Amino acid sequence: MAELTIREGITRETTDDEELRKILETRKAEIKVVGVGGAGNNTISRLMAVGIV
């Protein structure tokens, strides 16, 4: 079973979660919006709303 750690602002985080978080912090996604119809404004707005862009 993964060891649980307590972090400020996060109630419970496993060591696997912590490792994944560290990897994601060092990686940057290159997102290209293609073929979504119109100008793609709705797609970009939704990506921004969920914090992807």
Summarize the structure.
By secondary structure, the chain is an alpha+beta fold.
Question: What can you see in these coordinates?
Answer:
With 53 residues, this protein is α+β, with helices and mostly antiparallel strands. It has one domain. Helix content is 40%, strand content 17%. It has a two-stranded antiparallel ribbon. Strand 1 and strand 2 form a beta hairpin. The N and C termini lie far apart (34 Å).
Question: What are the salient characteristics of this protein?
Answer:
53 residues, alpha+beta, two-stranded antiparallel sheet, 2 helices
What percentage of amino acids are in beta strands? 15-25%
Class from secondary-structure proportions: alpha+beta
Domain module tally: 1
What radius of gyration results from the CA coordinates? 16 Å
Q: Helix fraction?
A: 25-40%
> Which sequence of strands runs across the widest sheet?
1-2
Q: Categorize the overall geometry.
A: elongated
What's the number of helices? 2
Please give the number of β-strands.
2
Secondary-structure topology with pairs:
Elements: E1 4-7, E2 10-14, H1 15-26, H2 41-49
Antiparallel strand pairs: 1-2
